[in-house]
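hey so i finally got around to running the thing on that chain from the lab meeting. sorry it took forever, my laptop kept dying and i had to restart like 3 times. anyway pasting the input first so we r on the same page abt which one it is
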Amino acid sequence: MRPPIASLVVLLLVVAALTVIGLGGIHAERIPQAVPNGEQQIAADTAQSVRTTIDVEASTVRRTATAYQATGASTPATALKALTSARKAVLGGALLDPHTGKLLSAGGKPVPLAGLDVATTAAGHGAIPPRLVTSGGTRQLLYFARVTLPAQQEDANQDQFQAPSRTERQWLLVVSEALPALTTFGDGRTAEVLDASGAALATTARGTASPAAADGTLPAAAARAANASGSDTDASGSMLGAATGSRRTVAGWAQVASATGPGDTDHLGLVVLTFRAVPATTTGADYSRFALEAAGALAGLALLLGLALHFFVQRPLLRLYLSAGRLARGATEGGPTAREELFRPVPVHGFGELARIGRALESLRRQLLGESGPEEFPARRGPGYRALAVAGVLVVACWAVPMIFVLNRADTATAVPAPVLAAQQARTEIATNRIRQSLDQSYTDLSDVAAGLPGRSRAAQSEVLRRTLADHKQYRSLYLLDRSGGITLRVGGTPLRTLVHVPDGGGITTVNTSGRIPAIAAYTQVRAVNGKTPAAGVVLFGEIDVNALNSLLPRPKLGSVWVTDDHNKVLAASVGYRAFQSLPESGLTRLARATQGAPGTAGTATSAVLRTSSGPSVDAAAPLAQSGPTARLGWHVVTAEPAAALQIPAVQAEQRTMLAGILGLTLGAACLGWLHVVVIRPLRAVAVLVERLAGGDRRTVLHPVNHDEIGSVTRGLELMRQALAERDRAARSGRAAGPSRSSRETTLQR
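ok and heres what got predicted. didnt touch it at all, straight out
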C-alpha cells in the first residue's frame, strides 16, 4: 500500500524538478545557437562538394591512364597528348621516368615539379594522392597516375647489327589543374578555400555581402581550429565574428578530408570557410518564471494527492487491518483476554470498500458474540476507491494537458529565425547541386564510353562495357538498343525499364513509371564512324543504381531528403520510401510546386516553416532543372528537418513543456494504476467476500493472494469463517442431540 503512494509523490516531485531544470535553462540569445550550427553544416556540405570534386578528378586521371592502350608506335609525347588533350580542366601535363625523375614529355603550361621526389612519389602500388603546389604565385593541384608504355631500350653489350629489344616500362603521369571552383548558395554568403596557414586560395560570394561580414580574423581562426582538431579528419565548427550595428557575422569551417577513411584529400590541409552577416534578435525570452510556476503547481498537486491517499486510503486500511487481526484473535484464541477483543466494536472509517468491509466486520463481531445472526447488505453502493483513483488521474491531467497542448506553443510563423530557414534552403540547393553533378558525371562517363564503341568487335564492346561497369559503381546495368528499341548487348543486372523507346540526343531520364525500384538511366547516342565497324546499337543506356543516388542524400541536420519527378512522385530518398509514392505531407508537395521548376527552366528554390503532427518543421525545395543533361527533367529536391532537432529557444520550450506534461501524466497514471492493482481491486474483492460471510456464507474459503495488509485482512476473515462454521456445526449437533435425549428420558419415566 505504501510504495504506490510514496512513488506517486516522489515521481511527481522529480517531474517538477526536471521542469525547472529543463525550462529554466532556456534563454534566447541574440544569435540563436541554431544559426551558427546551420552555418557549420553549410561549410561541411561545401567541403564535401570540394572533396568529391577532387576525388572524382583524381579517379578520372587514374582511370584514363589505366584505360590507355599503348601500341608499338606510342611515344611519351603521343601518350601524353592522348591522356590530356580531351580534358579541358588540365592546365599542363608531364610524363616522368619514375626511377630517374627524367622529364620524358610535357604539354600545356609548365607543371611545377620543383621539390617533387619522383622516385618516392611513384614508389609502391597504391593510388598516389594529389598534392597542393605553388606555381607563379597561384596554388594548383597535381594529380598522379602510372602509365604503362612500350619503350625501346638498347643493350650496350649487344652487337650493333642486332635490333634493339622491346620491353614494357611504367611511367609517371603528372597533371596540374586549378583548385575546384566553389559554388556558393544563400544571398550574402561568402565561401573561401584556405590552406593550413589560413591563406585564401579561392573565394566566391553570392549577392552583396554585408559590411559586418568583412572580418579578416576569421580565416586565421578557422585554420587554427582545423589544425587543433587533430586526427579528426572531417572536423567542422562554427564561430561568431565582428558585429556592425544590429548584424553580426556567423562563420562555419570544415576540413576538406574524407569522413570514411583515408582519401585523396586528407593530406592537402584544405579548409572551407563560409560566413554571412545575420541580424541579431532584439528581444529575449526567459522561461525561468514559467518553469518555477509550473513546477510549484505540480509539487502542490503531488502533496495534495499524497495527503488525500494517506488519509482516505492508507490510514483507514491500516485501522481495518488492526481490527481484522483483533477479531481473528478473539475468534480463535481462548481465554478471557481474547474474549475481550470481541467486545470492542469495529470502527467504520473511510468510504466505499473500506466502509463496507468495516460494517461487515462489525456484523461478524456481533455474530461471533452470538448477539445477532447473518445480516444482508444492500446491493446498491456509493462511489468507491476506484473513483478516487480516477479523480487522482484527472487532477494530474488538469496540470499535464495544458502543458502538452496549450502552454508555450511555438508560433509557426515566428518561432524559427529567418537565418535558420535561409540555411535550410541553402543546404537544399547544395544537395541539389551535388545530385545534379553526380547525374551529369554519369552522363559524361557514358558519353566517353559510347565514343569508344564504334570500330570494335562485339566481344571488344562487351569488354568495354564490363570494364565500365566495374569502374563506375553507380551503374547497375549497361545495354545497347537498336533502332526498334530492342536490347542488342547487355552487361550487368536485368534492366528495370518498362518504357521501350529510342530517344534522340542524350541526357538523364526515367525508364519506368511503376514498380518497386525507380529506374533512372543516362543515355547517349552511339555515333557511326566512317570506315569503321558500326556499334551493335544506336543508343547506349546506363541504368543508375538508385542506392547510389540515395547515398548522396543524407547529411547531418538536413533532415529527410526526397528526390521527386515532375509529378512530385518520389524517386529517391534518405529515409524509407515506396517507389513513386507521394510526399508524406501535402505541405511539402505545395512547396515543391512553388519552385516553379518547369521542364527546361531553372526555377527558384523556396523554403517555409510548416506545422506537422510532430511540431514545426523547417522545409525547403529546390528544382533540379538546370542546364545540361538534367535540364529537361523537371525534378525537385525536397528537405524537411523537424524544428525540434534544431536549437531554437521557442521550439525547445514547446518540446520540453510537452515532455514535462507527458511525463507527469504518464507517471501519475502509472502510480495510481499501480495503487488500483495492488490495493483497490483486491479491496473490492475482499468487500464482496466479507459481505457474503456476514450474510451467512460459511462454505466459500477465503484465500489470501498477497502478503500485505489486504492479505492479512483476508487471513483474519478466513479464521473468523472457520470459527463461525465450527460454531454453526456445534449448534446443529446440539439441536440434533437434544430431541434424542428427551425421548430416552420419557421412556425411562414410563
